[in-house]
Amino acid sequence: MNRQQLIQQIKEKQSFLCVGLDTDPKKMPGHIFDLHDPILEFNKAIIDATAPYCVAYKPNLAFYEAYGIHGMTAFKKTVRYLKENYPDHFIIADAKRGDIGNTSKMYARTFFEEYNVEALTVAPYMGEDSVTPFLEYEGKWVVLLALTSNKGSLDFQLTEDARGERLFEKVIKTSQNWGTTENMMYVVGATQGRMFEDIRRVAPEHFLLVPGVGAQGGSLEEVCKYGMIKDCGLLVNSSRGIIYASNGEDFAEVAGNKARELQQQMAEELKKAGVI
Question: Beta strands 56-59 and 208-210: pairing type?
């Protein structure tokens, strides 16, 4: 999916919602375990209920890898289900890969050829040769970690060099020599608030993947105030706040309602910003 197609989906759906498929059997409703493949069936129900209100899905690989071959099979089948039934949705594999060049090439092949997702989260710490193999696939995206929402982000991401440039700013500036606004996004946590102003000074046109709205306490209104651009430029992710809103038999219906609530808020923000 290219940038213009993503923007078109945002405008048509009046939504920039990404639903995180952090599928944890310990949090799934009990009745789902009567089915043959509980993880897959849970995902399918969530997808069917939320698809009208979102433009993207973000399976977090940790929740699948933890269950070995069965979990990874469920991940692969989930991606296939999306491709077959909701082909206009953007799929981000949240795997945070990144290693020396040869290894990154294998990771890129895994996610862009074997699993055929649209985008992959990548860690930039090892530099250019660890990231560029992911950028060799036309129509695929790298989502580079920049300024995250976790407490430990303070340990490195906000440290300054002798000129006062913070590490996250250096990552964003340097990486723009590797990719473009057509194939690179940045992860910026919703809890960073007005820091989005600083992000936009160094990355005025790139899309931002924004986790942390909902269960982690990030403010959608604040994210939009400081981070939205004329083409929207945002994919705001919500995971737990949607998929675990209920642990009863109505879990999918409640998830759909939560997604619709966010979509309605997003539609208002898009109108305020003149995107739609």
Answer: unpaired
CA dist., res. 161 & res. 164, Å (int): 5
Task: Kindly give the pairing relationship between strand 208-210 and strand 234-238.
Answer: parallel
pLDDT tens by residue, 215-260: 566 789 999 999 999 999 999 999 999 999 999 999 999 999 999 9
Distance in angstroms (rounded) separating the CA atoms of residues 43 and 77: 10
Query: How do 119-122 and 90-97 pair as beta strands?
Result: parallel
Q: Tokens in use for 21? A: 């498929």
CA geometry: angle at 104 spanning 103 and 109, to 5°?
Answer: 100
pTM of this prediction? 0.96
3-state SS assignment for residue 56:
strand
Determine which helix (DSSP H) or strand (DSSP E) holds 188, and give its type and residue range.
strand 184-188
Helical H segments across 19-100, by residue range: 38-50, 62-65, 68-85
Catalytic residues: 96
